[in-house]
Specification:
Blueprint lengths: L1 H10 L4 H12 L3 H10 L4 H13 L3 H14 L4 H13 L3 H14 L7 H14 L6 H14 L5 H17 L3 H14 L4 H15 L2 H14 L7 H13 L3 H14 L4 H12 L4
Helix pairs in contact: 1-2, 2-3, 4-5, 4-6, 5-6, 6-7, 7-8, 8-9, 8-10, 9-10, 10-11, 10-12, 11-12, 12-13, 13-14, 14-15, 15-16
Length: 280
């Protein structure tokens, strides 16, 4: 049947709707022929993108991936298609392919419905938070570009961009710059718990004010959702107490951290050492 339909469509070049539907028929198992059919129809890459977004929303990521790949095959300079492809690769944990897609989205720089900063934001995340891809300088550049264009999908992305750049500043000993970016992130999203933790560590590194650092970490703890990651503010607080000789407080903080992650060997070793030397 499809062969007869193809032949009739070849003889009647104005049957653009027919080519559109033939592409849908072929899409499942004959993707090259589907692509050729769509190129002969009046279908727009945005139409294909729409179908991919429906599958993405339904968490059918393999289907979404197929639609988004077709989108960029139809129009290779379509930033929205590359962006959605990158987001889908993140969902299936293909970090390298995600980073490549986000990079392509900003390289072709032809955005329609996607804010440009969101692509730079995700590119920065890819280079900062996935160990196999870690490129701090590339992440810093991407975050800075995102903030320059100031076109985000939502305020959470903007705040997280400032947070990501602040972390890179802090890692490189640029504590004043880090504090500035952490505070920007908090101004935009006061519920960003990780930002308070980073701010406290940057403040302490800059001026050694344990009282202020303790206060800020406790702000982070008050915002932190319950779960294994809540060990981090307690772990950091314990390390600061230990550095300043407040061993009893350090023991308490490390014990609290272990209630959230009993498998943390680093914290367990610190706690065991402190308990060994504790005054009876």
């Amino acid at each position: 049947m499809t062969t007869r339909l193809q032949r009739s469509l070849e003889l009647s070049q104005n049957r653009r709707d027919g080519w559109r539907w033939l592409g849908i028929v072929f899409r499942e198992n004959r993707q090259e022929e589907a692509l050729l059919a769509w190129k002969k129809s009046d279908i727009m890459p945005g139409d294909i993108l729409w179908w991919g977004r429906q599958e993405f929303a339904a968490q059918q990521f393999s289907e979404a991936l197929s639609w988004f790949k077709t989108t960029v095959q139809l129009q290779p300079d379509y930033s929205d298609g590359w962006y959605e492809l990158g987001r889908t690769y993140l969902k299936i944990e293909d970090w390298g392919a995600a980073a490549s897609a986000f990079q392509q989205s900003v390289t072709v720089n032809n955005f329609s419905t996607v804010p440009k900063s969101s692509s730079y934001y995700h590119l920065g995340l890819s280079y900062q938070r996935y160990p196999s891809l870690r490129q701090p300088d590339a992440a810093f550049t991407a975050y800075t570009e995102a903030l320059y264009w100031d076109e985000f999908r939502n305020y959470q992305e903007e705040a997280d961009t400032y947070y990501g750049r602040a972390e890179l500043h802090r890692e490189n000993g640029r504590f004043e710059e880090a504090i500035h970016d952490y505070q920007q992130a908090i101004d935009i999203n006061p519920e960003h718990e990780w930002t308070y933790l980073g701010l406290a560590l940057a403040q302490y590194s800059l001026d050694g004010d344990l009282v202020q650092a303790e206060y800020t970490i406790k702000q982070a703890i008050s915002l932190w959702p319950e779960g294994i990651s809540k060990k981090w503010p307690y772990r950091s607080l314990g390390e600061l107490y230990k550095q300043t000789g407040q061993n009893a407080s350090a023991i308490e903080a490390f014990q609290q951290a272990l209630t959230y992650d009993p498998s943390d060997k680093y914290v367990q070793e610190l706690l065991d050492t402190l308990l060994l030397h504790a005054v009876p």
